[in-house]
Amino acid sequence: MQVPSAQPGRPLVGETCPPQESPHAFLPAPEMLKLDPVTAHPLLELFKGDTMVRCGLYQHRDSNPKRFDSSNCILTCKGFSCGQHYWEVIVGTRNHWRVGIIKGTVSRKGKLSKSPENGVWLIGLKEGKVYEAFSMPRVTLPLTTRPQRIGIYLHYEKGELSFYNADNPDELSPIYTFQAEFQGQLYPIVDLCWPERGPYSPPIILPVPTVSRHPQALNSHPAPEEPMKP
Known about the structure:
The protein is an all-beta fold. It has a single domain (about 45-205), classed as SPRY domain (Jelly Rolls, Sandwich), CATH 2.60.120. The chain contains no helices and 13 strands. The radius of gyration is 17 Å and the shape is globular. Pfam families: PRY, SPRY.
């Protein structure tokens, strides 16, 4: 089975993988990712072994160059500089979020410039209503359902970053594909956008891959290990 493709800058909406095949047949083994507290904006709190993040009270933290100081963002510990990689992000019922990848060389100080030209590839939800791909120009995504689990597939050499509605493990629905010439180390990024605070504020979660959701992918050969961020 082949990965669904699209023209550059065009959303992939309403397409589904053929029901007779596993939608995960083309995917590498899902990545087990953890969030990097060194990069976390001071409003962000981590839980469950650094796999869950939500907005909390401002915390005084060191202002190291790896930490976001204006945008409510956090990166994963692991980055990618080659190969094919798949991971999922549970955005749940949050009304504001963005997920995707970022070049490791992008500055974390000041407001994050969200565009491929600046080394950032994101899709997101605004005010619980508008789905967007942060391309140039920005693209509104006409989704008819509200996904709570986003699948992200990076093919580094092919220059493609694809997003899927992964709520149903048996039927991945394509959302959008970026096409680019990637260079250097890329890191998965989570942007909580707007501080939805409080004990009942929905977190964003990097789920642990399970056999029940990824029976074929988990039995495949894992992708080569990438170096951890220094």
